[in-house]
Amino acid sequence: MLQLDPRMFEFALTSFIAIMIIINPLSTIGLFLYLTKNDKEAGRGKIAFMCSLASFIVLVFFALTGFLIFQLYSITLEAFRIAGGVVLLLIGLRMLFPPASEHKEVHAGSSIWLVPLAIPMTSGPGAITTAVVLSTQVNNPWMEISLWAAIFVACAINFVVLRNAGWVDRRIGTTGAEALIKIMGLLVCAVGVQFMITGLKAAFPLLA
To answer: What residues have CB less than 8 Å from 52, skipping those under 6 apart?
Structure first.
């Protein structure tokens, strides 16, 4: 019988916060509303559900295959943590200082729930990197379950936010959404820097 690991709750919370910060469904509201402007509430709900389900599948897949990817390409954990930290840092900086051409016209279609809503808006490079890096910290089945649960809850919240995108947009307004994205961007930068510090310390013990 498996013994309950007391660290699983801390790991689950850490995983949830890291994934939730990267997914940041509030940053997708504008695009979601634009792509679904001709859909009724039921249609929007279906698109929000499919987007969140696809994101969950993508993130769990990469969380499960992280080690296989390392072995296939002879990538060390330290190298991936450093590279992942760089990716997250760049994404965070992009959230803090978005380029002028950030909002490009996107043509709606029958599979908008997959592209661009699920990939790359929700489960993009940052979220995938976070899932893989977190999976490298798993050392027992309970922590594995904790990671899956964290991904599930984050994707469930993504569904709730997108399902109620119209209501959220009316309540917080454009200024509120932009301010929240800036705060999230700063947190993403911090997570990225921490990943790099951890990777550098492991690769170069003298730095510890």
So the answer is: 118, 122, 155, 156, 158, 159, 162
Q: For residue 191, what are the contacts with CB-CB under 8 A and spacing of at least 6?
A: 18, 21, 22, 88, 92, 130
pLDDT tens, residue order, the chain (208 aa)? 556 667 788 999 999 999 999 998 987 887 788 788 778 888 999 999 999 999 999 999 999 997 787 788 888 878 888 888 888 888 889 878 887 755 444 445 568 999 889 988 899 878 988 999 899 888 888 899 999 999 999 999 999 999 998 787 678 777 877 787 788 788 888 888 988 998 899 888 887 6
CA 51 – CA 115 distance, rounded (Å) = 9
This prediction has a pTM of: 0.74
- Report how far residue 64's alpha carbon sits from residue 67's, in angstroms, rounded to the nearest whole number: 8
On whether the CB atoms of residues 186 and 96 are closer than 8 A, the answer is yes
CA distance 31 to 175: 16
Report the alpha-carbon angle 61-95-162, nearest 5: 60
Residue type, position 124, single letter:
G
